[in-house]
Amino acid sequence: MILVVGGSGTLGRVITHCLLAAGETVRVMTRTPAKAMSLVDAGAEVVTGDLTDRESLIRACAGAEKVIAAAHSLLGRGRLASEHVDHAGHKQLIEIAKASGVHHFVYTSA
Q1: Rounded to 5 degrees, what are φ and ψ at 53?
Q2: C or N terminus of the chain, fewer CB within 10 Å?
């Protein structure tokens, strides 16, 4: 199973649709599941998660073999500022993915 972190965003949505079209099993992690309903309809599993919430990352990574990180905080403020999401959040995601047995990790940035 492939976990797409930020799968309801612009890049993550395209990645998710491509993976589903290729027959992959996909789990999408998003802060806003309502934005991912079309992905559910396309066959993805959707879980609520946030790069600043360790427990949600543990749940999202459970059973994943691969992770594609497509989330960012370009315009975030406060707890969603880039230093918390893009730096500390992704670092935490990588650590949890490793501990969960993820074999392949792809980090995207724009």
Answers
A1: -120, 100
A2: C
Q: Cα dist. 88→15, 35, 39 in Å? A: 23, 25, 27
Count of CA atoms in the C-beta half-sphere (13 A) of 81: 4
- C-alpha to C-alpha distance for 49 and 61, rounded to whole angstroms: 10
Q: What is the pTM of this model?
A: 0.89
Query: What distance in Å separates the CA atoms of residue 73 and residue 1, rounded to the nearest whole number?
Result: 25
Give the Cα separation of 88 and 59 in Å (integer). 18
Q: How far apart are CA 44 and CA 95, in angstroms?
A: 24
Pick 85 or 36 by higher pLDDT.
36
DSSP state at residue 65: S
